[in-house]
Specification:
It contains ten helices and 17 strands. It has 432 residues and is α+β, with helices and mostly antiparallel strands. It has a domain of 245 residues.
Protein backbone atom coordinates (compact mmCIF):
# COMPACT_ATOMS: atom_id res chain seq x y z
CA UNK A 1 0.00 0.00 0.00
CA UNK A 2 2.75 2.39 0.94
CA UNK A 3 4.62 1.44 -2.26
CA UNK A 4 1.51 2.05 -4.37
CA UNK A 5 0.90 5.43 -2.76
CA UNK A 6 4.54 6.45 -3.20
CA UNK A 7 4.46 5.34 -6.82
CA UNK A 8 1.25 7.33 -7.45
CA UNK A 9 2.78 10.44 -5.87
CA UNK A 10 5.91 10.07 -8.00
CA UNK A 11 3.88 9.73 -11.17
CA UNK A 12 1.73 12.69 -10.24
CA UNK A 13 4.79 14.87 -9.61
CA UNK A 14 6.08 14.08 -13.09
CA UNK A 15 2.74 14.74 -14.85
CA UNK A 16 2.53 18.20 -16.50
CA UNK A 17 -0.05 20.57 -15.07
CA UNK A 18 -3.39 20.15 -16.80
CA UNK A 19 -4.50 23.19 -18.83
CA UNK A 20 -7.46 25.07 -17.38
CA UNK A 21 -9.04 27.33 -20.00
CA UNK A 22 -9.93 30.71 -18.54
CA UNK A 23 -11.78 33.79 -19.77
CA UNK A 24 -12.11 37.34 -18.49
CA UNK A 25 -14.53 39.82 -20.02
CA UNK A 26 -14.82 43.61 -19.82
CA UNK A 27 -16.57 46.69 -21.15
CA UNK A 28 -14.53 49.76 -22.13
CA UNK A 29 -15.72 52.63 -19.94
CA UNK A 30 -13.13 55.22 -20.98
CA UNK A 31 -10.63 55.69 -23.82
CA UNK A 32 -8.60 58.67 -24.92
CA UNK A 33 -5.45 59.59 -26.79
CA UNK A 34 -2.55 58.85 -24.45
CA UNK A 35 -1.10 62.29 -23.72
CA UNK A 36 1.44 62.59 -20.92
CA UNK A 37 0.71 65.63 -18.73
CA UNK A 38 3.82 67.35 -17.41
CA UNK A 39 2.39 70.26 -15.42
CA UNK A 40 1.43 70.31 -11.75
CA UNK A 41 -2.11 71.59 -12.23
CA UNK A 42 -4.44 73.28 -14.66
CA UNK A 43 -4.46 73.04 -18.43
CA UNK A 44 -2.53 76.05 -19.70
CA UNK A 45 0.31 76.04 -17.15
CA UNK A 46 3.88 75.34 -18.33
CA UNK A 47 5.20 71.86 -17.64
CA UNK A 48 7.87 69.40 -18.69
CA UNK A 49 5.70 68.47 -21.67
CA UNK A 50 5.02 72.05 -22.81
CA UNK A 51 7.53 74.49 -21.24
CA UNK A 52 5.60 77.49 -22.66
CA UNK A 53 2.22 76.11 -21.65
CA UNK A 54 -0.58 75.54 -24.12
CA UNK A 55 -1.13 77.36 -27.37
CA UNK A 56 -2.20 80.96 -26.66
CA UNK A 57 -5.69 82.38 -27.17
CA UNK A 58 -6.31 83.62 -30.69
CA UNK A 59 -7.09 87.19 -31.78
CA UNK A 60 -9.40 86.39 -34.67
CA UNK A 61 -9.67 89.97 -35.85
CA UNK A 62 -5.89 90.04 -36.24
CA UNK A 63 -5.97 86.67 -38.03
CA UNK A 64 -8.39 88.06 -40.61
CA UNK A 65 -6.44 91.28 -41.01
CA UNK A 66 -3.26 89.27 -41.58
CA UNK A 67 -5.20 87.34 -44.23
CA UNK A 68 -5.91 90.53 -46.19
CA UNK A 69 -9.18 91.85 -44.78
CA UNK A 70 -9.40 95.43 -43.63
CA UNK A 71 -9.67 95.94 -39.89
CA UNK A 72 -13.22 97.20 -40.38
CA UNK A 73 -14.19 94.09 -42.35
CA UNK A 74 -12.55 91.77 -39.83
CA UNK A 75 -14.20 93.49 -36.88
CA UNK A 76 -17.59 93.35 -38.60
CA UNK A 77 -17.20 89.64 -39.36
CA UNK A 78 -16.67 88.95 -35.67
CA UNK A 79 -19.48 91.25 -34.52
CA UNK A 80 -22.46 89.32 -33.06
CA UNK A 81 -24.75 91.79 -34.84
CA UNK A 82 -23.48 90.69 -38.25
CA UNK A 83 -26.38 88.92 -40.03
CA UNK A 84 -23.95 86.44 -41.62
CA UNK A 85 -23.05 85.07 -38.20
CA UNK A 86 -25.04 82.14 -36.85
CA UNK A 87 -25.38 80.01 -33.76
CA UNK A 88 -25.12 77.04 -36.12
CA UNK A 89 -21.94 77.83 -38.02
CA UNK A 90 -20.45 80.80 -36.13
CA UNK A 91 -19.06 82.69 -39.15
CA UNK A 92 -18.55 80.81 -42.41
CA UNK A 93 -16.33 83.54 -43.78
CA UNK A 94 -13.60 82.48 -41.35
CA UNK A 95 -12.85 79.70 -43.83
CA UNK A 96 -11.89 82.12 -46.58
CA UNK A 97 -8.62 83.48 -45.29
CA UNK A 98 -6.18 81.73 -47.59
CA UNK A 99 -4.37 83.17 -50.58
CA UNK A 100 -6.87 84.78 -52.98
CA UNK A 101 -9.65 84.02 -50.47
CA UNK A 102 -9.03 80.27 -50.64
CA UNK A 103 -10.86 78.06 -48.14
CA UNK A 104 -8.21 77.17 -45.56
CA UNK A 105 -10.09 74.10 -44.37
CA UNK A 106 -10.18 72.52 -47.83
CA UNK A 107 -6.75 73.96 -48.75
CA UNK A 108 -4.81 74.37 -45.49
CA UNK A 109 -1.53 75.12 -47.25
CA UNK A 110 -3.11 78.24 -48.78
CA UNK A 111 -2.25 79.95 -45.49
CA UNK A 112 1.04 79.82 -43.59
CA UNK A 113 1.44 78.31 -40.14
CA UNK A 114 0.83 80.71 -37.30
CA UNK A 115 4.01 79.75 -35.46
CA UNK A 116 2.04 79.72 -32.19
CA UNK A 117 0.97 76.05 -32.20
CA UNK A 118 4.00 74.49 -30.58
CA UNK A 119 4.75 70.75 -30.31
CA UNK A 120 5.55 68.80 -27.18
CA UNK A 121 9.24 69.25 -26.35
CA UNK A 122 9.45 66.99 -23.29
CA UNK A 123 11.24 63.63 -23.36
CA UNK A 124 8.52 61.52 -21.70
CA UNK A 125 5.43 60.02 -23.33
CA UNK A 126 2.89 57.28 -22.81
CA UNK A 127 2.44 54.48 -25.31
CA UNK A 128 4.30 51.58 -26.89
CA UNK A 129 7.50 50.87 -28.77
CA UNK A 130 5.95 50.25 -32.17
CA UNK A 131 9.06 49.82 -34.29
CA UNK A 132 11.25 47.94 -31.81
CA UNK A 133 13.93 50.65 -31.97
CA UNK A 134 14.89 51.99 -28.53
CA UNK A 135 17.08 54.67 -30.10
CA UNK A 136 14.08 56.66 -31.34
CA UNK A 137 10.97 58.05 -29.72
CA UNK A 138 10.28 59.02 -26.13
CA UNK A 139 11.05 57.53 -22.75
CA UNK A 140 8.08 55.87 -21.07
CA UNK A 141 6.71 56.47 -17.59
CA UNK A 142 8.79 53.61 -16.19
CA UNK A 143 11.94 54.73 -18.01
CA UNK A 144 11.58 52.32 -20.95
CA UNK A 145 13.04 53.59 -24.22
CA UNK A 146 11.65 53.88 -27.71
CA UNK A 147 8.03 54.88 -27.01
CA UNK A 148 6.46 55.93 -30.32
CA UNK A 149 3.70 58.54 -30.01
CA UNK A 150 4.14 61.36 -32.49
CA UNK A 151 0.42 62.12 -32.37
CA UNK A 152 1.11 63.33 -28.84
CA UNK A 153 4.19 65.23 -29.99
CA UNK A 154 2.14 67.05 -32.62
CA UNK A 155 -0.96 67.91 -30.56
CA UNK A 156 0.01 67.50 -26.91
CA UNK A 157 0.22 71.24 -26.17
CA UNK A 158 -3.24 71.95 -27.59
CA UNK A 159 -5.50 73.26 -24.85
CA UNK A 160 -8.41 71.11 -26.05
CA UNK A 161 -6.53 67.83 -25.50
CA UNK A 162 -4.08 68.68 -22.70
CA UNK A 163 -4.69 67.82 -19.07
CA UNK A 164 -4.38 65.06 -16.46
CA UNK A 165 -5.87 61.67 -17.27
CA UNK A 166 -9.62 61.86 -17.92
CA UNK A 167 -9.61 65.64 -17.40
CA UNK A 168 -8.82 67.14 -20.81
CA UNK A 169 -11.76 69.11 -22.18
CA UNK A 170 -12.03 67.14 -25.40
CA UNK A 171 -11.71 63.75 -23.76
CA UNK A 172 -14.38 64.48 -21.18
CA UNK A 173 -16.97 65.63 -23.69
CA UNK A 174 -16.40 62.82 -26.19
CA UNK A 175 -16.26 60.07 -23.57
CA UNK A 176 -19.48 61.50 -22.17
CA UNK A 177 -21.21 60.70 -25.46
CA UNK A 178 -19.83 57.16 -25.41
CA UNK A 179 -20.92 56.59 -21.83
CA UNK A 180 -24.38 57.91 -22.68
CA UNK A 181 -24.85 55.25 -25.35
CA UNK A 182 -23.25 56.42 -28.59
CA UNK A 183 -21.36 53.11 -28.85
CA UNK A 184 -20.03 50.27 -26.69
CA UNK A 185 -16.87 48.18 -26.97
CA UNK A 186 -16.33 44.93 -25.09
CA UNK A 187 -13.13 42.97 -24.50
CA UNK A 188 -12.67 39.22 -24.14
CA UNK A 189 -9.38 37.82 -22.83
CA UNK A 190 -8.86 34.06 -22.79
CA UNK A 191 -6.01 31.62 -22.28
CA UNK A 192 -5.14 27.97 -21.75
CA UNK A 193 -2.74 27.99 -18.81
CA UNK A 194 -3.47 27.24 -15.14
CA UNK A 195 -2.60 30.81 -14.09
CA UNK A 196 -4.34 33.69 -15.94
CA UNK A 197 -1.75 36.10 -14.56
CA UNK A 198 1.09 34.18 -16.21
CA UNK A 199 0.06 32.48 -19.43
CA UNK A 200 2.25 32.28 -22.55
CA UNK A 201 -0.68 31.77 -24.92
CA UNK A 202 -3.50 34.29 -24.66
CA UNK A 203 -5.96 35.81 -27.11
CA UNK A 204 -7.48 39.28 -26.67
CA UNK A 205 -10.61 40.20 -28.63
CA UNK A 206 -12.22 43.62 -29.10
CA UNK A 207 -15.84 43.65 -30.25
CA UNK A 208 -18.71 46.02 -30.95
CA UNK A 209 -21.83 45.74 -28.77
CA UNK A 210 -25.37 47.04 -29.38
CA UNK A 211 -25.99 47.47 -25.65
CA UNK A 212 -25.43 50.78 -23.89
CA UNK A 213 -23.53 50.98 -20.63
CA UNK A 214 -25.43 51.54 -17.38
CA UNK A 215 -24.55 54.18 -14.79
CA UNK A 216 -24.75 53.79 -11.05
CA UNK A 217 -26.22 56.31 -8.62
CA UNK A 218 -23.02 58.37 -8.71
CA UNK A 219 -22.96 58.65 -12.48
CA UNK A 220 -20.13 56.13 -12.88
CA UNK A 221 -20.32 53.16 -15.23
CA UNK A 222 -21.66 50.15 -13.33
CA UNK A 223 -19.73 46.88 -13.19
CA UNK A 224 -20.95 43.40 -14.04
CA UNK A 225 -23.67 44.34 -16.51
CA UNK A 226 -24.36 42.14 -19.53
CA UNK A 227 -23.47 43.00 -23.13
CA UNK A 228 -24.03 41.12 -26.34
CA UNK A 229 -21.43 41.02 -29.10
CA UNK A 230 -22.60 42.58 -32.34
CA UNK A 231 -20.78 40.78 -35.17
CA UNK A 232 -18.82 43.22 -37.29
CA UNK A 233 -16.53 42.73 -40.23
CA UNK A 234 -14.82 46.01 -39.30
CA UNK A 235 -14.86 46.59 -35.54
CA UNK A 236 -13.42 43.26 -34.44
CA UNK A 237 -9.76 42.76 -33.58
CA UNK A 238 -8.00 39.66 -32.24
CA UNK A 239 -4.53 39.94 -30.70
CA UNK A 240 -2.26 36.97 -29.94
CA UNK A 241 -0.76 37.80 -26.55
CA UNK A 242 0.77 36.56 -23.33
CA UNK A 243 0.42 37.47 -19.68
CA UNK A 244 3.23 37.98 -17.17
CA UNK A 245 2.53 39.26 -13.68
CA UNK A 246 -0.99 40.21 -14.78
CA UNK A 247 0.24 42.31 -17.68
CA UNK A 248 -1.18 41.39 -21.09
CA UNK A 249 1.23 42.06 -23.95
CA UNK A 250 0.54 41.36 -27.61
CA UNK A 251 2.98 38.91 -29.16
CA UNK A 252 2.08 39.70 -32.74
CA UNK A 253 0.93 42.99 -34.26
CA UNK A 254 -2.51 43.21 -35.84
CA UNK A 255 -1.95 44.19 -39.46
CA UNK A 256 -4.99 46.48 -39.74
CA UNK A 257 -7.18 47.13 -36.70
CA UNK A 258 -10.30 49.28 -36.45
CA UNK A 259 -11.85 50.53 -33.21
CA UNK A 260 -14.73 52.85 -32.47
CA UNK A 261 -13.38 55.95 -30.75
CA UNK A 262 -14.89 58.74 -28.61
CA UNK A 263 -13.77 61.60 -30.83
CA UNK A 264 -14.95 63.65 -33.78
CA UNK A 265 -13.43 60.98 -36.03
CA UNK A 266 -15.75 58.36 -34.44
CA UNK A 267 -13.27 55.60 -35.31
CA UNK A 268 -9.55 54.88 -35.44
CA UNK A 269 -7.67 52.66 -37.84
CA UNK A 270 -4.28 51.41 -36.66
CA UNK A 271 -1.70 49.64 -38.77
CA UNK A 272 0.71 47.27 -36.98
CA UNK A 273 -1.40 47.57 -33.84
CA UNK A 274 -0.09 46.35 -30.49
CA UNK A 275 -1.38 46.38 -26.93
CA UNK A 276 -0.20 46.34 -23.34
CA UNK A 277 -2.93 46.03 -20.70
CA UNK A 278 -2.71 45.38 -16.97
CA UNK A 279 -5.22 43.35 -14.95
CA UNK A 280 -5.88 45.45 -11.84
CA UNK A 281 -6.42 44.14 -8.27
CA UNK A 282 -10.02 45.46 -8.33
CA UNK A 283 -10.80 43.39 -11.43
CA UNK A 284 -10.58 46.24 -13.93
CA UNK A 285 -8.27 46.48 -16.94
CA UNK A 286 -6.05 49.43 -17.90
CA UNK A 287 -3.38 50.08 -20.49
CA UNK A 288 -2.59 51.06 -24.04
CA UNK A 289 -3.38 50.18 -27.62
CA UNK A 290 -0.92 51.60 -30.13
CA UNK A 291 -0.24 51.64 -33.84
CA UNK A 292 0.17 53.87 -36.86
CA UNK A 293 -2.89 56.01 -37.57
CA UNK A 294 -3.77 57.76 -40.87
CA UNK A 295 -3.49 61.44 -40.02
CA UNK A 296 -5.54 63.07 -42.78
CA UNK A 297 -8.88 61.61 -41.59
CA UNK A 298 -8.17 63.03 -38.14
CA UNK A 299 -7.77 66.52 -39.56
CA UNK A 300 -10.80 66.07 -41.81
CA UNK A 301 -12.98 65.03 -38.88
CA UNK A 302 -12.56 68.47 -37.30
CA UNK A 303 -13.20 70.19 -40.65
CA UNK A 304 -16.40 68.19 -41.14
CA UNK A 305 -17.57 69.15 -37.65
CA UNK A 306 -17.91 72.78 -38.92
CA UNK A 307 -14.50 74.40 -39.11
CA UNK A 308 -15.37 77.84 -37.73
CA UNK A 309 -17.13 76.28 -34.73
CA UNK A 310 -14.22 73.97 -33.99
CA UNK A 311 -11.71 76.80 -34.23
CA UNK A 312 -13.68 79.11 -31.94
CA UNK A 313 -14.63 76.58 -29.29
CA UNK A 314 -11.34 74.69 -29.25
CA UNK A 315 -8.85 77.55 -29.35
CA UNK A 316 -7.07 76.54 -32.56
CA UNK A 317 -6.45 77.42 -36.18
CA UNK A 318 -7.27 74.23 -38.08
CA UNK A 319 -4.47 74.68 -40.65
CA UNK A 320 -2.02 74.54 -37.73
CA UNK A 321 -3.39 71.07 -36.93
CA UNK A 322 -2.84 70.01 -40.53
CA UNK A 323 0.76 71.25 -40.58
CA UNK A 324 1.55 69.63 -37.20
CA UNK A 325 0.19 66.21 -38.15
CA UNK A 326 1.92 66.30 -41.52
CA UNK A 327 5.24 67.33 -39.99
CA UNK A 328 5.33 64.59 -37.35
CA UNK A 329 3.86 61.77 -39.43
CA UNK A 330 6.41 58.96 -39.12
CA UNK A 331 5.17 55.93 -41.02
CA UNK A 332 4.48 54.95 -44.62
CA UNK A 333 2.82 51.64 -45.58
CA UNK A 334 4.84 51.88 -48.81
CA UNK A 335 8.14 51.66 -46.95
CA UNK A 336 10.77 54.02 -45.49
CA UNK A 337 10.90 56.16 -48.63
CA UNK A 338 7.15 56.42 -49.10
CA UNK A 339 4.97 59.36 -48.18
CA UNK A 340 4.38 59.51 -44.43
CA UNK A 341 0.60 59.05 -44.43
CA UNK A 342 0.43 57.67 -40.88
CA UNK A 343 1.48 58.87 -37.46
CA UNK A 344 2.41 56.82 -34.38
CA UNK A 345 -0.44 56.84 -31.91
CA UNK A 346 -1.39 55.43 -28.51
CA UNK A 347 -4.83 55.12 -26.96
CA UNK A 348 -5.31 54.85 -23.21
CA UNK A 349 -8.00 52.28 -22.36
CA UNK A 350 -9.85 51.61 -19.11
CA UNK A 351 -12.34 48.74 -18.83
CA UNK A 352 -14.57 47.25 -16.14
CA UNK A 353 -15.60 43.63 -15.49
CA UNK A 354 -18.72 42.72 -17.45
CA UNK A 355 -20.62 39.70 -18.71
CA UNK A 356 -20.19 39.33 -22.46
CA UNK A 357 -22.68 37.20 -24.35
CA UNK A 358 -22.65 35.54 -27.76
CA UNK A 359 -24.49 37.46 -30.51
CA UNK A 360 -27.68 35.44 -29.94
CA UNK A 361 -27.48 36.17 -26.18
CA UNK A 362 -27.89 32.46 -25.36
CA UNK A 363 -24.55 31.93 -23.63
CA UNK A 364 -21.58 33.75 -22.16
CA UNK A 365 -18.63 33.97 -24.51
CA UNK A 366 -16.28 31.10 -23.72
CA UNK A 367 -13.18 32.49 -25.40
CA UNK A 368 -11.87 35.26 -27.64
CA UNK A 369 -12.75 34.23 -31.18
CA UNK A 370 -13.97 35.71 -34.44
CA UNK A 371 -17.64 36.39 -35.09
CA UNK A 372 -17.09 38.14 -38.43
CA UNK A 373 -18.86 35.44 -40.43
CA UNK A 374 -22.06 36.34 -38.57
CA UNK A 375 -21.92 40.01 -39.59
CA UNK A 376 -24.91 41.10 -41.66
CA UNK A 377 -24.84 44.35 -43.60
CA UNK A 378 -22.93 47.54 -42.81
CA UNK A 379 -22.07 48.56 -39.26
CA UNK A 380 -24.42 51.10 -37.65
CA UNK A 381 -23.21 54.66 -38.19
CA UNK A 382 -22.70 56.87 -35.16
CA UNK A 383 -24.53 60.19 -35.19
CA UNK A 384 -22.71 63.09 -36.83
CA UNK A 385 -23.62 66.71 -37.38
CA UNK A 386 -27.11 67.11 -38.84
CA UNK A 387 -26.07 70.11 -40.88
CA UNK A 388 -25.01 70.15 -44.53
CA UNK A 389 -21.28 70.80 -44.31
CA UNK A 390 -19.21 71.45 -47.43
CA UNK A 391 -15.48 72.06 -47.09
CA UNK A 392 -15.91 72.85 -43.40
CA UNK A 393 -18.77 75.37 -43.66
CA UNK A 394 -22.53 75.00 -43.31
CA UNK A 395 -24.46 75.70 -46.53
CA UNK A 396 -27.96 74.90 -47.82
CA UNK A 397 -28.40 71.57 -49.60
CA UNK A 398 -26.96 71.70 -53.09
CA UNK A 399 -25.03 74.92 -52.44
CA UNK A 400 -21.28 75.41 -52.66
CA UNK A 401 -18.98 76.84 -50.01
CA UNK A 402 -18.10 80.29 -51.36
CA UNK A 403 -16.74 83.53 -49.97
CA UNK A 404 -18.94 86.52 -49.28
CA UNK A 405 -19.05 89.28 -51.83
CA UNK A 406 -17.37 92.63 -51.28
CA UNK A 407 -20.78 94.12 -50.60
CA UNK A 408 -21.53 91.54 -47.90
CA UNK A 409 -18.15 92.14 -46.28
CA UNK A 410 -18.68 95.89 -46.07
CA UNK A 411 -19.61 97.01 -42.54
CA UNK A 412 -22.95 98.86 -42.34
CA UNK A 413 -23.17 102.57 -41.85
CA UNK A 414 -23.87 103.66 -38.28
CA UNK A 415 -27.58 104.29 -39.01
CA UNK A 416 -28.08 100.85 -40.56
CA UNK A 417 -27.26 98.87 -37.43
CA UNK A 418 -30.81 98.09 -36.25
CA UNK A 419 -31.80 95.85 -39.19
CA UNK A 420 -28.53 93.96 -38.77
CA UNK A 421 -29.23 93.37 -35.07
CA UNK A 422 -32.71 92.05 -35.89
CA UNK A 423 -31.21 89.64 -38.43
CA UNK A 424 -28.64 88.49 -35.91
CA UNK A 425 -31.38 87.72 -33.42
CA UNK A 426 -33.18 85.60 -36.02
CA UNK A 427 -29.93 83.75 -36.68
CA UNK A 428 -29.41 83.08 -32.99
CA UNK A 429 -32.87 81.48 -32.95
CA UNK A 430 -31.65 78.88 -35.43
CA UNK A 431 -31.61 80.40 -38.88
CA UNK A 432 -28.64 80.39 -41.28
Amino acid sequence: MRFALATLMAITSLTPAVAHPWTKTYVVEWSEAAFYYGAKEGVIAPGTDCPKGTNPDIDWVKVMVDAGYTKEEATWLRNPANPTRSAIHSQNQMAFRGKDRANVYANPTSTPESGEFLPVSGAVAEGLNLDGDERTGFSGLAGEKGVDNNFYKALGCWKYLRGPQRQANGNQSQNGYMRDGRFTTVIVVSGQGPDPMNDPKVTVGFYDSPDAMVKDGNGNIARDYTFRIRPSAKYEVLFPAKTAGGEIVSTEAAKDAWFREPSYAREVELLKAQLRLKMQPDGSLKGYIGGYRPWRPVYQSWVDARGPVIEELMWVRLPDIYYALRRYADYSPAGPRGEKTHISYAMRVEALPAYVMTPDAKAQVAKAQSFKTLARGPDPEMARTKYNVVDGVVVPLGAKAISQTAEQLRPPAAGAAKPAVAAAQRNAAGGL
